[in-house]
Amino acid sequence: MFALDLLVRRRSGEILRLGPTGRSGLIGLPRVSDELYRTARVLRLFTWPERRQVAAEALERLASLDAAELGRRLERGVSLLR
To answer: 7: which DSSP letter?
Structure first.
């Protein structure tokens, strides 16, 4: 996923090759990949028009909907959390 292979010219003129481990002070690829992985594992649900509590079971049902059913509900204006 992060097969980094870049040539970087520093202000000093030095040329560096950045590989999968990155380079401290330039691109900390291991840290960046850990943060991306952690962030991608978060489910964010935005409710409108106000903030409200949503039961975990409702989110599970929503996550199990196929694309066609989700589209039908959106077209009809039906609540996705019912």
So the answer is: E
pLDDT in tens, 27-62: 666 666 777 777 777 777 888 888 888 998 998 899
Task: List the Cα angle 73/77/78 in 5-degree steps.
Answer: 55
79 closest CA partner among 31, 42, 33, 47:
47
What are the Cα distances from residue 23, in Å, to 13, 27, 28, 32?
A: 16, 6, 6, 12
Whether this model's pTM surpasses 0.70: no
Q: Which residues pair with 77 in a beta bridge?
A: none
DSSP H/E element including 9? strand 6-9
